[in-house]
Amino acid sequence: MASLRRIALPYTLDSSWVHSALKKLPLAVYLDSAAAHGDRGRWDIIAAEPVRTISLLTSSCSDINKQSLNIENELSNISNTYASASDLPFTGGALGYLSYDFGEQVQAGLSAIRSDLPLLHIGIYPWVVIVDHQRQRCELVAQASVPADKIKQLQSLLSQRHVGPSKHNFKLTSPFTSTLGRDDYAEAFSKVKAYIDAGDCYQINLTRKFSASYSGEPWTAYLQLREVAAAPFSAFMDLGPSQILCLSPERLLSATARQLQTQPIKGTAARSDDPSEDQALAAALLSSAKNRAENIMIVDLLRNDFSKSCQPDTVVTESLCELQSFRTVHHLVSTVSGYLRDNQSEFGALLACFPGGSITGAPKQRAMEIIREIEPHRRSVYCGSIFYLGAEGKMDSNIAIRSFVCHEQQISAWAGGGIVADSQLEEEFIETETKISKLLETLANL
Predict the structure, then answer these.
(1) Are 401 and 337 in contact (CB under 8 A)?
(2) Does residue 159 belong to any structural domain of this protein?
(3) Which residues contact 226 (CB under 8 A, 6 or more apart)?
(4) How many CB atoms sit inside 10 A of residue 42's CB?
(5) How far is CA 120 from the centre of its chain?
(6) What is the enclosing helix (H) or strand (E) of 243?
(7) Contact predicate 354/107, CB 8 Å
(8) Which end of the chain is more exposed for a tag (fewer CB within 10 A), N or C?
(9) Which whole-number Å values give the CA distances from 358 to 33, 312, 332, in the listed order?
(10) Mind listing the pLDDT tens digit for each residue in 364-415?
(11) Inter-residue contact 93 to 391 (CB < 8 Å)
(12) Average pLDDT of the chain?
């Protein structure tokens, strides 16, 4: 196998300059650990100009599993043929997203409904820029197939380190409105509780959609959002006619040396600028029997998802209901791991866990059917997953919460929470506000 070419670049804590230098190239992607604004980030991955794209538009339930298998086989081939590096998480390969709408069809067999974005979009990228904040290193990494003149062009672009601010400032041209205002949310909440009381399900994640019109450049909006809501699984994806802005704190599934790990989030509390009050809010979340019960319920669901792909007796819960604090919220996070069976691929394991149980409910298929019936909107990329999959099956993926989609001068966002038997209407409504309000206010103030 041909060796990689690795070219050192200037390192800075804020790697957004790299994406700014490359963002005019087609289908640029920025996987952003937000190290400049948080304490959890290590790796940033920036790529553009895929040599191939896989984009699945609205598809019937009858053929989507066949198409998924074809994609799995193609990605496995990339994983087996691209050169790797033991000290890097990714050296080129697949970067893309799976939408929640895709998951509706694969997991629940629900009929297709057309949305603004493809059900999935994956690019095959033969070169990337990798930023390692732990070692304070930045480098251009290229597979052997990348021509020498392309590498020279990239070096020239990346020599423009001090990229100035965008001239196309982002600005909302209407206020955000929601598909589920307080009264409509109360009605939807009542329907969910009725299904839970009837024994149809144990938990349902109910979301609200927020939309506004805008002018300007979504990249400008992303740079502002990451300053107030830094998260280790953030991303900016330019799909041409649409852009995805994601500030997710949640991992869906990672894979290294055939070991899988998932880290579901369930349980949220607001943060306070007052240290004493902030500590009290965190302590209350940790001691909340309701939130712990919700988290444990999702851990059980994910352990079952892992059993579809992992070797028997290797699935373990490494941590349960651990408090993790982010810029705008506290969360309860658990960690589950397991080892893949020999006949299973990393992408196949991702599909087996998709969509994440923390944003559907339990049992997963019935929860998704109820969500389709009650929510008056499509989720699109929200609650889907942005992921990479490279050489030797190295993979990481998020759950695309705290996410925005820009399409035809409309920006959309979503926020939700898990509803269980003892959930209270006002508390759940406030939780949706807690998760999204600072982000909406940031955009409104640009």
Answers:
(1) no
(2) no
(3) 16, 32, 34, 37, 234, 247
(4) 13
(5) 13
(6) strand 242-248
(7) yes
(8) N
(9) 21, 23, 11
(10) 999 999 999 999 999 999 999 999 999 999 999 999 999 999 999 999 999 9
(11) yes
(12) 93
Range of the domain at 194: 5-154+169-444
DSSP letter string, 143-192: -TTS-HHHHHHHHHHHT--SPPPPSS--EESS--EESS-HHHHHHHHHHH
Q: What is the CATH number of the domain that holds 14?
A: 3.60.120.10
Residue appearing with tokens 């070692």: 135
DSSP 8-state secondary structure symbol assigned to residue 357: G
Report if residue 163 sits inside a domain: no
Helix axes 346-353, 289-307, angle to 10 degrees: 140
DSSP string, 126-148: SEEEEEETTTTEEEEEE-TTS-H
CB 110 within 8 A of CB 368: yes
One of 209, 266, 394, 435 is an active-site residue; which one?
A: 266
Looking at residues 34-46, what average pLDDT do you find? Answer: 88
- Is a pLDDT exceeding 90 seen at residue 115? no
Asked whether residue 160 is assigned to any structural domain, the reply reads no
Among residues 104, 139, 250, 294, the one annotated as catalytic is: 250
Q: How many domains does one find in the chain?
A: 1
| Section 338-358 average pLDDT | 95
User: Taking the CB of residue 389, how many other CB atoms lie within 10 A of it?
Assistant: 25
Q: Annotated catalytic, 152?
A: no
Question: What DSSP string describes 66-122?
Answer: HHHHHHHHHHHHHHHHS---TT-S-SSEEEEEE-HHHHHHHHH-PPP---SS-SEEE
